[in-house]
């Protein structure tokens, strides 16, 4: 899951908890004592969700369908594609607008750690959370993240596969998302 999905999952929580979920990928290590308690809990929650998603049979199956040469990077692309399906399916909903505005407010008011520090202002400025509803935007974002990694752009090389496998990926998400809500004991307001 990526930013939008993590925000949906914790939308009932405090701003600090939401912020922890949004910045978790930029926080290294297990020692979270430098963070306020609710933010540290948000970081831990994000990590638990990611671990659950990574073990899900649909995600494992999608990774196996990815081209062998880029399979190692497929998880990054899949996280962004899951946000695409969520953004597409909830576009125009009041709940999505509230979540997006809340995320942008938090990310504009607080600096993000490490490698996310330069990315978060771009996320807000270019309205990525709404932009993910457009699949071509999502594909450009996947390739853009790949430019930030060292070496060849393996994420950009995954874009043709994402386009070709779109229907299967959509089916994977349609199973994955409700199961995640059920596992967390949440009511899915995105439906």
UniProtKB/TrEMBL annotation:
Keywords: Hydrolase, Lipid biosynthesis, Lipid metabolism. Pfam families: ACP_PD. The keyword DNA-binding does not apply. One of its GO terms (molecular function) is [acyl-carrier-protein] phosphodiesterase activity. GO terms for biological process: fatty acid biosynthetic process. This is Acyl carrier protein phosphodiesterase. It comes from marine sediment metagenome.
């Amino acid at each position: 899951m990526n930013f939008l999905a993590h925000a949906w999952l914790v939308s009932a929580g405090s701003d600090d908890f939401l912020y922890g979920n949004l910045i978790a990928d930029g926080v290294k290590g297990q020692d979270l004592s430098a963070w306020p308690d609710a933010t540290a809990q948000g970081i831990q929650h994000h990590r638990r969700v990611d671990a659950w998603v990574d073990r899900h049979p649909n995600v494992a199956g999608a990774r196996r369908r990815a081209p062998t040469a880029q399979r190692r990077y497929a998880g990054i692309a899949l996280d962004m594609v899951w946000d695409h399906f969520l953004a597409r399916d909830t576009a125009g909903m009041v709940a999505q607008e509230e979540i997006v505005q809340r995320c942008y407010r938090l990310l504009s008011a607080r600096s993000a750690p490490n490698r996310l520090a330069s990315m978060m202002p771009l996320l807000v400025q270019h309205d990525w959370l709404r932009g993910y509803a457009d699949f071509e935007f999502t594909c450009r974002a996947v390739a853009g993240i790949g430019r930030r990694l060292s070496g060849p752009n393996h994420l950009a090389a995954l874009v043709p596969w994402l386009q070709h496998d779109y229907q299967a990926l959509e089916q994977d998400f349609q199973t994955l998302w409700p199961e995640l809500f059920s596992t967390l004991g949440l009511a899915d307001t995105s439906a």
